[in-house]
Amino acid sequence: MAWVRRGVDGLLSLLVALAVVGVMAVLAWVLGYVSYRGGTQILRGGWAIFTALPPAPLGGVGGFGPALVGSLILITLAVGMALPVSVLAALYLSEFCAFSWLVQVLNLGLDILAGIPSIMAGVFIFGVVIVHTRTFSALAGSLALALLIMPILTTATRLALGAVPGEIRQGAWALGATRWQMVTGILLPQAWPAIVSGLTLGIARAVGETAPLLFTALFSSYYLPVQALGIPALFTQPLASLPVLIYTFALSPFANQQDLAWAAALVLILCILGLNLLARWGERT
């Protein structure tokens, strides 16, 4: 029956190879089509497409400058919120929590939070922030994105801290280091490359999310002003972002806005692809 086993092995190997080829073909088709449609529009608009305002219906090429800047603002604020909370939470789970059952419960909560639909983060922030402030804002949008980054970053940091050899901890104790001296002087520097990789993966997930921003930051065709009525505009004004621009203009009946959506989609895909490659490179180094 050896020939039967060899036949089954060959068939399974063929199926696996076909599955891989199929997945790669779909990926290549998507990337190729988006690159063609988006690249054509970027070449048509030139460098101005990265700074200009979105076009009016039946207008010219326009650009996605406010959305590009808005996405950078949202991600920067989200990282500023998620990074300290995630690192401190991971330190507590890895180094300070004395109850194993609590660690298991909190880890389960992190897994659940990482798996919830992103729209739930937007609905939650809408109910907690938008309902009370009565305005969409960049701050609310960044809070929603921070909720998506935190479970990924916390888990990555906890695993990185757990991977630090026990001999290093014992050496620090032997030299008379306090717990916080060991954490800040030894554990965090050792785990920092893995923490950065986890942060990069979290950003890669958050940067392409549309649903939570529809409930929090909404959309704007203009750059965010510094202040509105004497209050920082981050707290009072809706903010443009690349994912919401793509969603809005893809549904537009006007060809020039649809073309701009393809260009923004290409930029967003390249950003996500670059972030994922950077995270993989960080894990290997």
UniProtKB/TrEMBL annotation:
A cellular component term, taken from the record's GO annotations: plasma membrane
InterPro entries in the record: MetI-like (IPR000515), MetI-like_sf (IPR035906), Phosphate_PstA (IPR005672), Phosphate_transprt_permease (IPR051408)
Domain ABC transmembrane type-1 residues, every copy: 68-279
Gene3D superfamilies (UniProt xref): MetI-like
PROSITE patterns per the UniProt record, alphabetical: ABC_TM1 (PS50928)
Chief location category: membrane
Organism per entry: Gloeomargarita lithophora Alchichica-D10
Molecular-function annotations in GO: phosphate transmembrane transporter activity
Gene: pstA-1
Protein name: Phosphate transport system permease protein PstA
Transmembrane domains' residue ranges: 12-34, 46-65, 71-93, 105-130, 136-161, 182-204, 233-254, 260-279
Membrane topology note: Multi-pass membrane protein
Gene Ontology BP term (one): phosphate ion transmembrane transport
Protein localization: Cell membrane
Family membership noted in the UniProt record: Belongs to the binding-protein-dependent transport system permease family. CysTW subfamily.
